[in-house]
Amino acid sequence: MNRDLIVALSGGIGGAKLALGLSRVLPPENVLIVANVGDDFEHLGLHVSPDIDTLLYTLAGLDHPVQGWGRADETWHFMETLRALGGADWFALGDRDLAIHIERTHRLRQGHSLSQITADFARRLGVAPRILPVSDDPVRTRLQTAEGWLPFQEYFVHQRCAPVVQGFAYDGAAQARAQPAVMAALRDPRLRAVVICPSNPYLSIDPMLAIPEFREAIAQCKAPVIAVSPIIGGRAVKGPTAKLMDELGLDPSSQAIGQHYGDLIDVLVIDPVDETGTALGIQMVVAPTLMKTLADREALARVVLRAV
Amino acid sequence: MNRDLIVALSGGIGGAKLALGLSRVLPPENVLIVANVGDDFEHLGLHVSPDIDTLLYTLAGLDHPVQGWGRADETWHFMETLRALGGADWFALGDRDLAIHIERTHRLRQGHSLSQITADFARRLGVAPRILPVSDDPVRTRLQTAEGWLPFQEYFVHQRCAPVVQGFAYDGAAQARAQPAVMAALRDPRLRAVVICPSNPYLSIDPMLAIPEFREAIAQCKAPVIAVSPIIGGRAVKGPTAKLMDELGLDPSSQAIGQHYGDLIDVLVIDPVDETGTALGIQMVVAPTLMKTLADREALARVVLRAV
Fold first, then answer.
1. Are A231 and A252 in contact (CB under 8 A)?
2. Domain, as residue range, for B233
């Protein structure tokens, strides 16, 4: 029996980079990427799945090299015109990017599931590893802030993560059914490891773990669970992870990330700059976690696989 | 009392050109353009109103100078990407044009009426004359063809007017309420004339006249009703008018256009090349009706106003 199957939990860009690395150092058919859907929302009548799209674009080599979302070869004529017509312009929708939202929304209304649609888009874009939304049921992250509860995109994009955060809710998670193919993979005797990618624990990973049967399946799975810390030297590479931790009264450190996941993980991969932190009851692997180049992504993927 | 109000019935590009001419030779606030909605349809989950958009773009000076639909300054990145994702690509949606469909659909779902939305778009695009959809209720043209009944856009765009047409249906027209502001204008003592623009009688004007109270109001109105023939020398400037007439067993002539409108009109404006046709019981005004330039549009508008 080859234990060659990797299940990787990913949010947006940070997770997508490691997912790309894993799918390049392994046969891509052995990599199953589980995508957060807590950021999904309806905007201008379109169903937008930001993390799935970042994964699709990153794995298809279409991702924007700097901004961390959207496509490299993008134009903005729709947005300019929408603004002239008085439309809501706080969420940027590129001309090419629009196609994925319109076609996905259309297929959802026709009764296709988010996972079916994602699989078809992946095939058409030439993405080899499987990308599966953690659930085909809606899970929606909300943030409790000093200004009251905010939907995820209102906080993240519209208010640019400015409000001070006190807590989180993952609406629908308690009732959501985890993706059957993901559940099967977690029970598969070929499972070699579960990798929690360096995504925001509160906004990218916890919305998935809030689905009871999914969390339970990870807790029960026989393969090791390896998390890669999204914190390097007290800061997140991208996004509000460190700011959030600070607001929650936590030290923004890889150690605190380890404590957050607790018993769920067996290994935490941290950057050398964080090596001086206090030891936890978790095995630590120290390796560079900043992924600037494709070689960095592959190198970190190899570190993760060696840690198994 | 100034009799200075003109009500102009228009389909797409042919009608829009004369509507533009009228709104340039008259104070634009005296021109009320009534737009066909029989071409409207839902595509990829978006409500598309082709004739309203052609009017908006033409009157805002944004129209494509040759193709007769869409915008001059258009790009096609959405379409390219949609095709790559396996989406339906038979109806061309430009990147800028998409904004009007998405924003309109969004506002319709929020409960705004088509006429409110059109008025706001017109204001934002700097269009001075009023453009009103003939009804805020759905009217949908279907064509009876040798291949069975086809929705308008299936016939017009997808099958490029190839099927042989035997008849028409205007679904919803019998139940539709005509636009109250249009009805008021037709009863307004300031009404100087009703102009039936050189649009396709079967596909652009009849879907409006199929609304009983609207047809009745035109038949009863005290001002003259002046139609401009869309046929010049046995051919339509744009679109399938002549082909349709031929398939319906009619001579594709301005005379046949006059017979089609019959008692509803008082004057028919025809091109000099059609002057040799048989006289009808309708007053004929002979003037060049081909509108290639802005000057042509203004000149034809003046001809129409003189014919009053």
1. yes
2. 5-307
Q: What is the pLDDT of residues B110-157, one digit of tens each?
A: 999 999 999 999 999 999 999 999 999 999 999 999 999 999 999 999
Longest CA pairwise span in chain B (Å): 61
Question: Chain B, 273-302: which have a CB under 8 Å from a chain A CB?
Answer: none
Residues of A with Cβ-Cβ distance to B105 under 8 angstroms: 45
Q: Do A46 and B102 touch (CB under 8 A)?
A: yes
DSSP state of B142: E
Residue B71: DSSP 8-state: B
Q: Which residues of A touch B96 (CB under 8 A)?
A: 77-78, 80-81
- What is the distance between the alpha carbons of residues A252 and A270, in angstroms, rounded to a whole number? 13
Packed helices A97-109 and A114-125: angle between N→C axes, nearest 10 degrees: 140
Task: Say whether the ipTM exceeds 0.95.
Answer: no
Q: Are strands A225-228 and A148-151 parallel, antiparallel or unpaired?
A: unpaired
Q: Is A214:A187 a contact under the CB 8 Å cutoff?
A: no
Neighbouring CB atoms inside 10 A of A184's CB total 12
Helices A50-59 and A97-109: angle between axes, nearest 10 degrees: 120
CATH number at residue B239: 3.40.50.10680
Q: How far is CA A62 from CA A57, A104, A295, in A?
A: 5, 18, 17
CA distance A118 to B114: 34
Query: Residue A180's CB: how many other CB atoms inside 10 A?
Result: 12
Single-letter amino acid, residue A67: Q
Q: What part of B 33-92 touches A (C-beta under 8 Å)?
A: 44-46, 74-75, 77-82, 84-87
Nearest to B45 among A94, A97, A109 (CB): A109
- Taking the CA atoms of A54, A60, A61 and A62 in sequence, report the sign of the dihedral they define: negative
Q: Are B205 and B36 in contact (CB under 8 A)?
A: yes
The shortest CB-CB distance from B87 to any of A81, A97, A103 is to: A103
Q: Is residue B45 a contact partner of residue A42, using CB atoms and an 8 Å limit? A: no
Burial grade of B81 (CB within 10 A; 0-12, 13-18, 19 or more): buried
Q: Pick the closest to residue B186 from B32, B13, B75 (CA basis).
A: B32
Q: Which of A71, A85, A89, A123 to mutate to test the interface with B (most CBs of B within 10 A)?
A: A85
Beta-carbon contacts of A184 under 8 Å, excluding residues fewer than 6 positions away, are none
How many CB pairs (< 8 A) connect A and B?
A: 100
Domain count, chain A: 1
pLDDT tens by residue, B193-229: 999 999 999 999 999 999 999 999 999 999 999 999 9
Q: How many residues does chain B have?
A: 308
Q: Give the tokens for residue A208.
A: 């998935």
Q: Read off the amino acid at residue A142.
A: R
Cβ proximity of B253 and B281 under 8 Å: no
* Rounded Cα distance, B4 and B25, in Å: 12
On whether the CB atoms of residues A95 and B75 are closer than 8 A, the answer is: yes
pLDDT tens, residue by residue, B80-107: 999 999 999 999 999 999 999 999 999 9
Contact A18/A6 with Cβ under 8 angstroms? no
| Paired tokens of A286 | 């120290």
**Mean pLDDT value across residues B237-262:** 92
CB atoms near residue A275 (< 10 Å): 10
Q: Which of residues 115-134 of A touch B (CB under 8 A)?
A: 120-121, 124-125
Would you give the distance in Å from CA A185 to the centre of its chain? 18
